[in-house]
Structures are given as structure tokens and as C-alpha cells.
Write a structure and sequence with these properties.
The complex is a heterodimer of chains A (420) and B (301).
Chain A (H helix, E strand, L loop, with lengths): L1 H15 L7 E7 L3 H17 L3 E7 L4 H13 L7 E5 L3 H6 L18 H6 L1 E2 L2 E2 L2 E7 L1 E5 L10 H10 L5 E4 L6 H13 L16 H15 L12 H9 L3 E6 L3 H5 L11 E4 L13 E8 L6 H11 L2 H11 L22 H9 L10 H16 L5 H19 L3 H4 L5
Parallel strand pairs in A: 1-2, 8-9
Antiparallel strand pairs in A: 3-11, 4-5, 6-11, 7-9, 7-10
Helix pairs in contact in A: 2-12, 7-8, 7-14, 14-15
Chain B lengths: L2 H38 L18 H8 L1 H33 L5 H13 L2 H12 L5 H8 L17 H25 L3 H9 L4 H29 L3 H6 L11 H11 L3 H34 L1
The chains are: A alpha+beta (420), B mainly alpha (301).
Chain lengths: 420, 301
Amino acid sequence: MRLPRALVFLGAALACGSGAPEGIVVSFPGSALGAEAELLQSQLERFMALQPEIRVVQQRTPDAADQRHRLYVQWLNAWADDPDILQLDVIWTPEFAAAGWTLPLKRFEPDTSDFFPATVATNSWRGELHAVPWFVDVGLLYWRSDLLGRAPRSLDELLDAASRERRVRHGWVWQGARYEGLVTVFVELLGAFGAAILDDAGRVVVDSPQAVRALEVLRNALDAGVVPRDALSWQEEQTRFAFQNGHALFMRNWPYAYPLMQQPGESAVAGRFRVTALPAAPGGRPSAALGGSQLAINARSDEPDAAWQVIAFLTHPDQMRERAERLGQYPPRRSLYAGDSLAGALAIPPAEARQVIEHAVARPATPVYTELSGVLQIWLHRALSGQESPEDALAGAAREIRKLLKRSGLAAETRDGMAP
Amino acid sequence: MTRPESERREARLAWLLCAPALAAILAVAVFPLGWTLLESLHLHDLRMPWLGRPFVALANYTEALAQPRFWQALAHTAFFAAASVSLEIVLGLLLALGLHGAFRGRGLARTAALLPWAIPTVVAALVWRFLFEGPTGAANQMLVGSGLVGEAPVWFADARLAWVPIILADVWKTTPFVALLLLAGLQGIDAELYEAARVDGAGALARFRHVTLPLLRPALVVAVIFRALDALRVFDLVYVLTAGGPGTATEPVAVYAFQSLLQDLRFGYGSALSLIIFGVSFALAWAYIRLAGASLIEVER
């Protein structure tokens, strides 16, 4: 546990060059590639021009989310005071907050009235905001507008069109590998059926009859050949390739795929597809999984005030608009969707985008989400690959998740008895 | 007498000279093992720092032994070891017999046969994944093209079929190693014994059964123990090919321990798992050496 910390210092020392660090230095790790890295760099330079006494030092971290997460956990467990700013995935905030690794942001009096309520809720722990939403990701249903007259209005319509489709190879493609993406696919189906993993009181309800039906939809689609069995090892990119090469009628994916598939040279479906939310099953509602990135402050940071200034600058409407325009990433501020300023930048008309995000379903906000998801991934994959029935698989998942919550001291049944 | 005195001094000097090496062994082997033991007796969950790091005695061990996933992983490991090692021994023996004969280009053939062994496991695993992945993978094209199967199987989505690429990849990669060990054994057999057997009227099969096999036994024993211990701690091949999936249908204990320790960051529980694996491997190696050692002595008689 010493080693990563030493590496942080080494990294910071190298980044500072030969001169002794002067003024305030704020360190900021995060995954940033290509256009995203360029934009962040130019925004940080603008910030430093406005605030010459603060220097922001960027640290390279792994781009794969789970690797970055592991690295953060090791740093923060060692109570490292670097990095000052943390870029968190939407599902990590409760974990880091409960561990006491992130600074409650109340003392900076952040104004969250403009943000989508769901993004504020997922970034709060025990009523306190711990991270500021930076950009939003939502799961979208991509559909071939050249093969269908209109988007399916119900889940049954989707399944019907997908199973009758003969012009392309696959009716429907999604991420079926055993990883976080599979959970987001399942969470969307749960939303469409009005089911959930945990209820509002934090009790495990992933084995409810509605949830079983949601999993049966995924399993039946595989068994009927509507979804290719290969999808059980597919992540986002493999599904994108299948759709982009014109082999699928429907695809579940994140917004990043939209601009890539609109490039005529690269894509066989440029201009021939559109997006919508996953349509509802009877008893549910249209559904999209909520994802995205947030910015938080290390509880042990030496420079929390300077770190807050950086975060406030990056999450200011001007910088968010620029991010949306340049990268097509959805801003978490609702006011930016008014008018036409983002019309050309986003995959769907801003008003529609806002609607999808308003209805987006969050994954469970629990400090043990990563382990909970790991359990669920295994049981979902067992059910989809035919080793267990959907009912038995969800019963097994519920049993293990209950055990996990009990072990963590966070079970709804025992929470009242726990120390605050 | 001065001799014992000088010998004693020499012995002291020897210990002194060995001390740095002994200290290094203590530091890199004994200390981590002791630390792991200590960890395994605590609840230490990096994902749940609010629980602290209390001493829990054997709770981690009892949890592991009560976990179906642990027993399944153990069964997977045993199955993998049995299937891959037996195939490797049979094929390795055939390969060794082939390479043992005198023929033109023997040196080249021996080098070429060793090639798979020289490829890093992760690279080999990736190659095998490409061969078996998707309907257009080489394996499926061959199967469908030859008319053996009507529809291309999806290897990695089936709890049983997923073993095929794993075992094939391991056999492909390590058979040359087994062959090399056995070839060395074959070359140690006196050619006169074959002559004598032939004079006595023994056919090729009889010569193999009564001369080659018994005299090859020490080499076979060494090959089996090397391969079995390797197979019991299989990690990289499975991690790259299936990551233990679908579900956890191909998960060996090493992958399970890795998941618990480095993915879930459960240091206490993961340490307990690691020590259980260590104990199992150690016990097996010990038992095997006892048995094989006895048979080696028999051969010498």
C-alpha cells in the first residue's frame, strides 16, 4: 500500500519539473484520451490564466474504469493526500463517501438546483453532496430508421419487430459479457418492467416476479436467436461494430457510439439510424440507465479550497456547454437543454435528451455497489448462458446480495441498529 | 589437533557467507507467507474501511469452505489438471518417440516442436481466443466447412464447450515441454537393451512395454509433477480466454482468489483462499513425491 503512494509523489515530483513547487498545486488524475484530453487541457489552461496562483497538475491513470477504481481505493486507503481531485464514476460516490475518502461539499455551498435530481441523488450520501456531476451518460436504444417506420412504442413491439426481422442478421444486440455493462442492460430492463435491484428502503428486491420477467426477456431473446449468442462475450465496442456494419436492427449502447456511426466512410448505417429510450413493458416506463462522471475532493487534500475552485470552473455552464459541443457529452445542467444551443451537438434533440435523462434509472446507491454488481454479473451470466433459470439465478443473486449487505453492516433490516 | 578447529572456523565462515542469502529467502519467502497468514486471520476489506481490521480467527477459512463457488473452483482446477496433464503426457510421449528416431532434419524438427512452449502464455491465449471466437473464427470455419457440425457452436457462451479452447490451448502450449523431458529420458536408455530384447524375439510393442516404459518412468514422474503443479495454479490462460466464464463455469481457484483479493479487495478472505491453495498444492506435491520416490527406488532395484 506504500508503493502507490510513493508513485503518486514521484509522479507529482516529475510533473513539477526541477524547480521547487511554488504557490498552490492541485493534482487531478482521470482517464482522458484524444479529443477529451485536449479539451480538458485547454479548459485547465484557461482556469490557470484566470487563477495564476493555482497550478493544476494532471496525472495519467488507467482508462479502464475498474482499474482506475482499484488504484483510487489503494491510494485512499493509504490516506494519501494526493490526488486532490477525483474523477468518479456515477456508481462510486456512495462507496467513497461512506469510507470517508471524499470531502462533503456543503461548506462550499454548491448550487445544485440546476442539475438533474437523479444526478444529485446518486452523488449524495446520507443527505450530503459528495461530488459534482460533470457529464451524464444514458443508455440509448439505437434503431434502424431505414428498416422501421417509427421507434417501437412498447417492449413487446420491440421484441416483435426484432424477432421478425429477416433483412439483417440480428434483431437486437446488447452488452452480454460478464462485466458492469451487463448490469446496466439489466437495470434498463428492470426499469421497463417497473422493477429494481434494491427498493427505496434499501431492501433486496432483485428476485421479484417483475425482475424475473425482465431477465426472461433477455434470456428468451438469446434462446430464440434474436440476440446472437456471441453477445455473451460482447462489450460496447463489439455491439457497435455489429450495428455499424449494418447487421442489427436494434442496439443498446451509450451516446458515444452516435457520432462514430454517423461517419459515412466508416459506417454502413450513417444517416440510417435514430435513438430513443428503451420502451416500457406493461407496468413499467421507458427506461435508460444513468451513467457519467463526477468530480470530488480527496478528504485528505492539502488544498481543498483550490480544488473546489477547479471543480466549480469545470462544472460551470460555459465549460459544460463547450464539452457538449465538442465531445457530444450530455451536460447534467437542465438549463443547457433550453433553446437550440446544443441542437447540433447532441445525438437527439435537446428536449428529447432532457426527457430521457429525467427518466433515467440509477443503479443502487450503496457503498458496496462494486461487489453487489460483481455478484449480479455472475448470476445474470449464468442465467443467460443457460446454466440456471432466470428465477433461480435471481434468487441466488438476492441471497448473496443480502449476505453481502449484512456483512457490510448496511443491510436495511439492520441499519437502524448500526452506529451512524 | 588443529584440523577440527579449522573446520569449525570454516563452518562459521560458511554460515556467515550464506547469511545474506538466508536473509533474502526469509524476506522474500517466509515473511510474505507469514504476513498472508496474519491477514487471513483478520477481517480486512478495503472496500469497507468502516469495518476496521478486527481479528476474526478462522472466520475467513470457514466462509471459504462454506462457499459453493470455492468448491466449484476447486473441482474446475482438478478437472483442468487431470484433462490437460493426461493429454499432454500421451501426446508428449508420442512426440518424444517421433523426435527420438534418426531422420533427416531432426534438429530442425526438434526446434520447431518447441516453438509453442516459447510463446508467452498470454499471447498464446489471445491467439486461441481469436481462433474460437465468433462464427468466423478459424475453428468454427473448419468445423462448419468440413460438415462436421451444421451450426457454428458459441464456445465461450457454453459452460461445457468453454473448456475445449482452454484445454486445447494448454495442451498445444505445454506438450513440447513434456516431450522435451521425455526425450531426455529416452536418450538415457541404453541401446543395447533394445538389441537384447530383439534377440529374445520381442516385437516393437513388447519392447516399448517392457523396456521403454519402465526405464522412462523417472522422466515420466518428473514430467507429471511439473505439469500437475503448473496446472493446479493455472491463471493467465483462463483469465485471458474466458475470465472464468460463462458465469463462473471455468473458474479455477487461482482466478477466484485473484478476484477476491485484487478485484473485491478483500485482503483477509483472499489471503485465506491463497493459503488454502498453497496447502492443497503442497500436500499434493508431497504425497506425489512420496509415491513417485518409492517407485523410483523400485526401478533402481
